[in-house]
Description:
This protein is α/β, with parallel strands linked by helices. It contains 32 helices and 31 strands.
Amino acid sequence: MTATLRLLYAEDNPQDADLTQACLAEYAPEFQIEIVKTGQQCQQRLQESTFDLLLLDYRLPDMGGMELLTWLIQAGIKIPVVLVTGARDEEVVVKALKLGAINYLPKNNHYLKTLPEMLHLALKEYEHKQTMGLLAAHDIRRILYVEHQSMDIDLTLSYFAETLPYFVIDVVKTCANALERLAQPHNYNLILIDLRMPDQSGLNFVREARSRNLRLPPFIMVTGQGNDSEAVTAIKLGAADYIVKRTDYLEQLPYRIDNAIIHDRLNQLNAQLLIELAARKQAEEELKIAALAFDSQMGMLVTDADGIILRINKAFTTLTGYSEEEVLGQNPRLFHSGQHNKAFFDSMWDTLKRYGYWQGVIWNRYKNGNVYSKWLAISAVSTPEGRVTHYVGNYSSIIENQEAMEEIHRLAYYDPLTKLPNRRLLQDRLSQALIAAGRSRLYGAILFLDIDKFKTLNDTHGHEAGDQLLIEVARRLRKAVREVDTLARLGGDEFVVLLENLNIDVDMAATYARQVGEKVREILAEPYSINGNDYKFHCSASIGIAMYRNLEAVDELLGHADMAMYKAKKAGRNTVRFFDKTMQEVVTANASIEKDLRCALEQNQLRLYFQMQAYHNGRIIGAEVLLRWEHPQRGLVSPLNFIPLAEETGLILPIGQWVLETACAQLEAWAKKSSTQHLQLSVNVSPQQFHQDCFVEQIDELVEKYNVQFDRLNLEITESLLLVNIDDAIIKMNALKKIGVQFSVDDFGTGYSSLAYLTQLPLNQLKIDQSFVHNINVKVTDALIVQTIIAMAANLGMEVVAEGVETEEQRAFLELHGCSIVQGYLFGRPVPLAVFEQQLNRN
Length: 843
């Protein structure tokens, strides 16, 4: 008896469905047919039940056949598909087959006669492809994409969605979030990570993932500005690829991802093969290990778990001069050259035990007595239980001349662009300098330099122009310091100058360090010729200085100089500043505040205070909500002490969301009372909040959730926020305007005021900054500015709110000149909700 085959037929044409059912009933009764009329019904049945075959009409009322084929791939449902349609389109055929369809059947006058045979052939072909493993091309590739640039994210997702739907991409915008994903059970095939992430570099992300023993799939580093040093470091860390974002980047990316995943699978297969060898007879094990080794054209040896050499290949004999008889049963110590100390080998074995892999340059003595260097990669082969059975060493590169060795040294210890010592060499010299200072009692200093406006040059003239600038900075620094001083480039636009043996008196030593700092600052402030003499670029340097004599830690000393450099930047750039203990105390205090602030939301320590906004007659029309933090030990913490820290750490996003939600909930409560339903609330929005991709959706959800009435929610934004991306601001504000959200420009007149953006944006209010209001009766210019803002707003059809009104004279001036809404201590201070509602009752 022929087995019953379940056929799901997606067809919206009743006549075609009936004819097909009748045909199969007569000529292929082994098919049990079920008919659905829409793509959604088809998806539901495929998720609910198992079918042997899917007969799919190309055009369904709710989705196309290609869309359904794409869904099958992404849902991981494997079923043979035959596509049927009345159209004759070669592109459709090719695309359907690429998306996994087994065959394609045009609806002509004779298609029903060939249908039974076509269905059986499709089943046979699918079974054959399954057996041969030919369906793997459409397996889902699950990618963890670690990228912070929104444009790159959108371009990548759009490209893959249109051309390669079987790539499922999970996007995270920080390394911290990526580490959280890896800490959970996951099935990522690959990590695609930008080298320069905001919270830490891609290289440090890999190091941290390994140090935490997270399951790390193969990873590809991508960068907008590559250099040889970073590429070498990435590959040494085990990167499957290193890609620079050039014009053809997206076209190459799928193939390079596939290549990395395939190589990873092959490595896994090789490891599985070696594990299986351990469980078989000794003769069979040796035969397969030997076959693996002899397939390689590079020098290769295999040892057991105790390091006893089991096999070498011919290439190894050619390289070292040792025959198989001379090395079998020996330990690789046979090749020791004496160039490496015990610490080197301890570190090697520690890495092997922790990660199962080690690679690096090693010096070995060959049979002829000569010492040569080579690149050695060692992999541990383990059983599923984690027991190491073998080690496989692969000599992938042999270096036999001094020139090549010097090149390796340069790559390891010098910046390839500026030829200055890199961070590694600086740390070594700084360690020696600290020891020497402790003995001699002579003070030394380090100068930490950051080039001001370097990003501006990169963004406007390209990375090549930036490289020219860095090379010239290095040249000028060499001229500004002594030959005995150490110059180093830490990376990016950061440089360090190490001054040793200055003076036993700290004041004299600091005076000399300042003189050097000022000399460096002046010479770096001179114009730079970029692209020959085509362009003159003007920039400067912010310089931080830290003195040393005692045995400070290297990283601590660099951190002190770094803090001093940021102090110089805050002082207006192009300046020199020294580190002092007060700076460290501020950093420590901020760290403590940050720690507590992370708990403030969870522990309900944040409060909203309300400062009334009113007409001149005292009638309250609403309030501005202001954030306060009631700390259990510190008491009421000023926003000036925690809002900048929240913005710096990203905590402003959850805090800002809480403020918006609490404000909307209050508007809902007021809307239920006739005495308060007219009130409006103004909420300050940070730039980070506003520039989130999901900002409009967040506000829309809150307005709907709390039934916020039209014109009751007013968002206060700053001029600087608008100028970051004026086009994005226009789109977002217009979208929110449609659901009744109002907008005010806060602190108007203190930023880059522009009539151009005032006419483009859907603004309702301008808020005159309190600094102008305070000086109305003091400075004629400020009074004129206030009058001008009021008149301009009136002509543009906007309201004007004056904040910081503290005296009757200020209020009278504002009323006289047409500013109808006022806010300030004259009317009321920021107060808790209960007090504000008492004010409402009195009003």
